[in-house]
């Protein structure tokens, strides 16, 4: 997964008003992915809209998720793009599961999101 794709995903989340966007390089601490992006949406419909936008942007690279889960409820949507896993959660769900602690050994990646 290259930095351009990571930045594009983070920018798509930001442009859809997702918040608290974090990207971890987890190659050294995980065998399931190279990168993880975590972000928060306001309500279930917002989380779903962010997820659809992420999928749309990845289609520009001819990539689609090999696994997607959570669209039904919209509290926590996971998109697995092989090398990048995107977690989009409601704030209370994110706080409860504290995914950041799972990858505390990974490095935070600066994706240089542009405010528009």
Question: What would you say about this model in short?
Answer:
This protein is an alpha+beta fold. 34% of the residues lie in helices and 27% in strands.
Describe this structure as you would to a colleague:
30% of the residues are buried. Strand 4 (76-80) and strand 5 (84-90) form a beta hairpin. The protein has a single domain, classed as Beta Polymerase, domain 2 (2-Layer Sandwich), CATH 3.30.460. The protein has 116 residues and is α+β, with helices and mostly antiparallel strands. Helix content is 34%, strand content 27%. Strands 3-4-5-2-1-6 form a 6-stranded mixed sheet. The longest helix is centred in the middle third of the chain and has 16 residues, at 44-59. Helix 1 (3-15) runs antiparallel to helix 2 (44-59).
- Total domains, how many? 1
Percent range of helical residues: 25-40%
Distance between the termini: 25 Å
Strand order of the biggest β-sheet? 3-4-5-2-1-6
Order of helices and strands: HEEHEEEHHE
> Based on DSSP secondary structure assignment, what is the total number of beta strands?
6
Computed Rg:
13 Å
CATH topology: Beta Polymerase, domain 2
Mean residue pLDDT: 94
Estimated structural class: alpha+beta
CATH class placement: Alpha Beta
> Can you say what the CATH homologous superfamily is?
Beta Polymerase, domain 2
Biggest β-sheet strands, sense, barrel: 6 strands, mixed
């Amino acid at each position: 997964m290259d930095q351009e794709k990571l930045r594009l995903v983070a920018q798509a989340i930001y442009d859809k008003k997702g918040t608290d966007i974090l990207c971890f390089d987890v190659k050294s601490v995980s065998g399931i992915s190279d990168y993880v992006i975590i972000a928060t949406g306001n309500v279930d419909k917002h989380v779903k809209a962010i997820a659809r936008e992420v999928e749309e942007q990845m289609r520009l690279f001819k990539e689609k998720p090999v696994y997607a889960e959570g669209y039904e409820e919209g509290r926590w949507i996971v998109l697995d793009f092989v090398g990048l896993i995107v977690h989009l959660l409601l704030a209370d769900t994110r706080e409860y599961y504290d995914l950041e602690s799972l990858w505390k050994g990974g490095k935070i990646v600066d994706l240089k999101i542009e405010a528009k």
